[in-house]
């Protein structure tokens, strides 16, 4: 579905990304982990067409989208809901921009997300975790087939974060949209993903790609299993060497 071929990017003299090639298959959940400043957000901006690469190409469903925007849906670190729109109006925004509005589906999805009582409320009336659920539903219901999620749970406390990870999986496992997910957390990447791409820094290159073997559906017990810890150790080893 998404393919990057030899993508490089510099800002002035500083080369941030060097020859990045990766792919995300249809329905696949792929995480990108790497040290702070390695260029993960830059990579997202390139895929989203907000920046252009110095070299390389980006394809979505076989069509070149290098330097083009509007082809992917995006969920940022902060929910970025419009304060003057109600929750349901915020969810419908992604569809409105593409000229397709399905009120019933948006309402059903919000109910499924446990937000049925607040569809006519405004963002300031919701907790941080609730707002992120709304942002995720909005991205999920946008017509684009690939979602980019940029550390969507980093601003949440540990309890809410674990809940949100389980919640996201329960919804995504039904929809199976393709997701590219940025995180600093190895646990989060292992729990959620089919594949983990590990980036190095200065400039970022792909250090390794790990295929995550855990079967789906996954539940919270997986996080405490011996197998999970072994895979975590394997990833830490890759990051350190
Ligand atoms: N518009 C820009 N102009 C100049 N330098 C930039 C620009 N955007 C990013 N950079 C630099 O590129 C490097 C990578 O930044 P980027 O935000 O992509 O990293 P990151 O991996 O997402 O970091 P973090 O995990 O801390 O969010 C940094 O050194 C940053 O200072």
UniProtKB/TrEMBL annotation:
Segments crossing the lipid bilayer: none
Keyword check for Nucleotide-binding: yes
Protein name: ABC transporter ATP-binding protein
SMART domains in the cross-refs: AAA (SM00382)
SUPFAM superfamilies recorded: P-loop containing nucleoside triphosphate hydrolases
GO molecular function: ATP binding; ATP hydrolysis activity
ABC transporter domain sequence ranges: 2-226
Cited Pfam families: ABC_tran (PF00005)
Keywords from the named record: ATP-binding, Nucleotide-binding, Transport
Keyword Zinc-finger listed: no
Superkingdom classification of source: Bacteria
């Amino acid at each position: 579905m998404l393919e990057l071929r030899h993508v490089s990017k510099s800002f002035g003299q500083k080369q941030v990304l060097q020859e990045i090639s990766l792919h995300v298959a249809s329905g696949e959940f792929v995480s990108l982990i790497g040290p702070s400043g390695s260029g993960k957000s830059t990579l997202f901006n390139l895929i989203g067409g907000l920046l252009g690469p110095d070299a390389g190409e980006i394809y979505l469903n076989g069509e070149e989208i290098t330097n083009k925007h509007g082809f992917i849906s995006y969920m940022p670190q902060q929910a970025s809901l419009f304060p003057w729109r109600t929750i349901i109006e915020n969810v419908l925004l992604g569809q409105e921009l593409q000229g397709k509005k399905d009120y019933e589906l948006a309402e059903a999805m919000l109910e499924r997300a446990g937000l049925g009582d607040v569809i006519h409320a405004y963002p300031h009336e919701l907790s941080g975790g609730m707002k992120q659920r709304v942002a995720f539903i909005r991205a999920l219901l946008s017509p684009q087939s690939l979602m980019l999620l940029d550390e969507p749970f980093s601003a949440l406390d540990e309890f809410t974060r674990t809940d949100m990870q389980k919640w996201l999986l329960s919804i995504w496992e039904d929809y199976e949209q393709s997701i590219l997910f940025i995180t600093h957390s190895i646990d989060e990447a292992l729990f959620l993903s089919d594949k983990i791409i590990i980036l190095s820094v200065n400039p970022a290159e792909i250090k390794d790609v790990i295929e995550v073997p855990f079967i789906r559906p996954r539940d919270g017990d997986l996080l405490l299993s011996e197998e999970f810890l072994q895979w975590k150790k394997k990833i830490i080893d890759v990051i350190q060497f």
